[in-house]
Amino acid sequence: QVRLVESGGGSVQAGGSLTLTCTYSEYSWRTNWIGWFRSAPSSAREGVAVINNPTGSSHFADSVKGRFTLSRDKFKQTVTLEMDSLEPEDSAMYYCAAAQDVNDVTWPEASRYNDWGQGTQVTVSS
Fold first, then answer.
1. Strand partners, 60
2. Residue 116 forms beta bridges with which residues?
3. What residues of the chain score a pLDDT lower than 70?
4. pLDDT value at position 43?
5. Rg of the chain on CA atoms, in Å
């Protein structure tokens, strides 16, 4: 089982920025893909973005395109989600998760991810 730990959440005003980091315990086929999801009260868990560890290719939800960026460091075993121009609608618990294989269609499906972190809270005030 892969251990994932999120860090970097907090509170910010609308228009501000936050950086979330996911640190994972092993670089292997289990962590081919590292994704970020978010869950707000009364909302289903939403796929935010995902990155392929070997290649660096990434996919983003339409709601965050142009505002969020992803990067990874295979040696440090981290994936970083940089969030700019934050909106109150971005407020949620953010989770990172690891998957062996997803594609540009299936990546938002939470069931395809085998291991999950405990989450970090992001709150954006208007």
1. 49
2. 97
3. none
4. 87
5. 13
